[in-house]
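Memo to structure team: turn this sequence into C-alpha cells by end of day. - J.P.
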Amino acid sequence: MVGRYRWIICGLLFAATTINYVDRQVLSLLKPLLEQKFSWTEKDYSYLVIVFQACYALGFISFGKLVDKIGTRFGYGVCMFVWSIASVSHAFVGGTATFAAVRGLLGFGESGNFPSALKAVSEWFPSIERSLAVGIVTAGTSIGAIMAPATVPWLAVMYGWQAAFIITGLSGFVWLMIWFRIYRLPEDTARLSSEELHYIRHDPSNIQIPEFKGRWIDLLKMKETWAFAIGKMITDPIWFFILFWLPSYFSDRYHLDLQHIGFPLMAVYCSTSVGSVGGGWISSYLIGKGWKTGAARSFTMLIMALLVVPLCFSAQVDTMWAMVALLSLAAAAHQGWSANIYSMPADYFPKSMIASVQGIGGMVGSVGGMLFPVFVGVVLDHYKAIHSINTGYYILFIVCGSAYVIAWLIIQMLTRTKIPMENAAS
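Reply from structure team:
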C-alpha cells in the first residue's frame, strides 16, 4: 500500500500559503485606523500598495533563482523568515516612509512562496497528482482571504493594532520550526516508505525531461516560459480585481454598508477553495484515466476559462445574490485555472529550473497586476463622473470574462512541442 506522507508535506505548503495571504491583508484591514493615526491620504496609502507590488514582482526573480540554487528546504525557509520579520516589523514603525520600507520587505519575502511551494510539489508528487496538490496549496490563498478579516480586526480591538501585526507575523516562525524539522527530499526522508518513494519517482505519465544545460537567461528564449508567463500576466490581474474591488462593487451597486457587506464577500471567497481543489482534481483524474498530461491540463484549463465567460453578462443580472453566484463561479474557476497553470513548469522543465520559471511567470503576472488597476481606475473614474459607475463595472466584467479564453488560446499556440528542453538545446 502506498503511504500518505507526501500529503503531510502538501498540508505544510498549504499552511504557508494561508499565512502568506493573512500577513499581506493586515494593513488593508487596519487601513481606517492607521489612516487616522498617521494622517495618511489616499495617495499615501496608494504608495504603500505600489511599493509592495513592485517589490513583490522583483522578488519573484530573485527567489526563483535562489530556491533553484540552494534547494527548496533552505530557500523556502529564507523567504518565510524575511516576510515574517517584515510582518512583525510593522508594529514598530512610525511613519509613511518606514511603513513603505517594511511593506517592500514584506512583498519581497512573500514573493518566494509560490516558487518554493510549487518546486516542493514537483519534488514530492508525480504528475498524476501534481495539479491536485497544487490546487490544495493554492486553496491557502482562499483560506487566508477568509481568515484575515475574521481575526485581524478582533486582534486590533482586543490588543491594539501592533498586536495584529506581531501575532500574525509570529505564526511564520512557528511554521519555520515545523518546516525545518520535517522537510527533506523524498530520498532523504526516513519516515517515507520505499513503496511511497517508488510511487513518487515512478511517474505514470512517462514524461522524460532532459536536464537543462543553458544559462538562466536562456529560459527567456523559450516559448514554454512565455506561455506560462503570459498566461499569468493576463489572468492574475483578474484575481487581484476580485480581491480588491469587490467591496467597492457591492457598495456602489447594491449600496451595502460595512455591516452587510461581509456575507456576499465570504460567499465569493469560500467558493475559491472548491475551485482550487476541484480544478486540480479534474486534471489529475484525467491523467489517471490515461490522458496525456498536457492534454489533461489543457482541457481542464479550457473548462475553467469557459466558466468565467458568463461574467461578461453581468449587466443582465439584477439581484445581488445572483451576482454573488456569478462572481463565485468566476472566482472558483480562476483558482481551478491556477491549480493547472501553476503545474505547467513542472510538466515542461526539469526540477532544477522549476522555481526559476515560476519566478519569471510570477514577476510577469505581478506586472500585469500593477498595470490593470490603472485601467480599472480610469474606467471607474470616467463612468463615476457621468453618474453611470455600474456601466464601468459592466465593461470591466466583460474584460474579466474574456481574459481566460484569450490566455488559453495563447498558451496553446506556444506549447505545441512536447519536450521544450530539446528545443532549447538545438
